[in-house]
Amino acid sequence: MSGNNAASYAGIGGVGSQIWPLTGPEVVSRKKLKELRKRSDGPGLFYLVVHVLALIVSGLLVYVTSGTLWLQIPAMLVYGTVIVLTFAPLHECSHGTAFKTRWLNHLLGYVIATLTFRPFLYFKYRHAAHHTYTQHKDRDPDIVPFPHSFGDYLAQIVGAEFWPKLFGTLWRGSVAGFNEDEKTFLPESVRRQVANEIRLQLLFYIAVIVASIYFSSTFVLVYWLIPRIIGEPVLRSIRMAEHTGTEESPNLLANTRTTLANPILCQLYWNMPYHAEHHLASSVPFHALAKLHEHVVPNLECVTKGYINVHREILAKVLRKNSSSSSTD
């Protein structure tokens, strides 16, 4: 691969700053950045223990409500929400900021990636592209188009595009080969490694299915697959709030939203509601984002109190857009 081609990948060679010159990080002083970017194993282990306990408690809630459908469905929603919020530690591990100890980041990252059907190494490179080209309509692989109608909004919430993309990744990585979009953020040097990881994941899933059939067990279905699916709309709602409706520009102070969430959600989502802060300084560990927020909040253009208010704003814009379109027809 030539030097120019190698430089075209996200986060490599600084090309992202030339194509999409991100602004905003300059509001974080070097002194403050040095103070906040210190990594430690302690906070990550504490958050992990709390998350595991939440999984156990909510899983027990599903167990004790078994046989009572009108109680078990809400219990599964709670349990499924705790499951899908493990996306937060997966995300932190991809940055290497969940723990100071490198192998802990890798171990937890691979475990959560497998349990949530996201190949870890694939996600790591894809997420690097998201940070390099945040809100670039063509180069940001995680950009969420603003919904053009209420039906489109609901489709995004339930994951109408998310699930095909997720399983498409597994299919292409294991059998068909990566598509052209994926090749823009996956250097050729890592594609075989990513493909092998995906194949190992699929072998694990096949083994779980075979074991479940052999033992006539519904454990995996009840305590993993169904709640994982039921909980996904909660994560879709949170992910939508991070950028949807913000500027599609390279200004990190305006293209990313911070949501002032309640303490329980901040705990289970590993402080990722402080999302603008994370994009401004992705090397700052999750446990220091609240302090970073205090430092940069006067400069942030998108700060909303609570996810319900975020979605009210998005829906209001959708309805105004539709109303305007109707009046011009």
Plain-language structure description:
With 329 residues, the protein is an all-alpha fold. The chain is 65% helix and 2% strand. Strands 1-2 form a two-stranded parallel sheet. It is globular. Pfam families: FA_desaturase. Its EC number is 1.14.19.-.
How many β strands by DSSP?
2
Task: Average the pLDDT over all residues and give the rounded result.
Answer: 93
The termini sit apart by 52 Å
The H-and-E topology, N to C, reads as HHHHHHHHHHHHHEHHHEH
Number of helices: 17
**Poorly predicted residue ranges:** 1-15
What characteristic shape results from the CA principal axes? globular
Q: How would you write the strand order of the largest sheet? A: 1-2
Taking the sheet with the most strands, its summary is: 2 strands, parallel
> How large a portion of the residues is in β-strands, by DSSP E?
under 5%
SSE-based structural type: mainly alpha
| Cα gyration radius (Å) | 20 Å
Helical amount: 55-70%
EC number: 1.14.19.-
Protein name: Fatty acid desaturase
Keywords: Membrane, Oxidoreductase, Transmembrane, Transmembrane helix
Organism: Sneathiella marina
What's the helix and strand layout?
Blueprint: H1 3-6, H2 15-19, H3 30-36, H4 41-64, H5 69-84, H6 87-95, H7 102-115, H8 120-132, H9 150-158, H10 162-176, H11 180-183, H12 188-214, H13 219-243, E1 258-260, H14 263-268, H15 275-280, H16 289-296, E2 303-305, H17 307-328
Transmembrane segments: 44-63, 69-91, 103-123, 202-226
Organism: Sneathiella marina
GO molecular function, one term: oxidoreductase activity
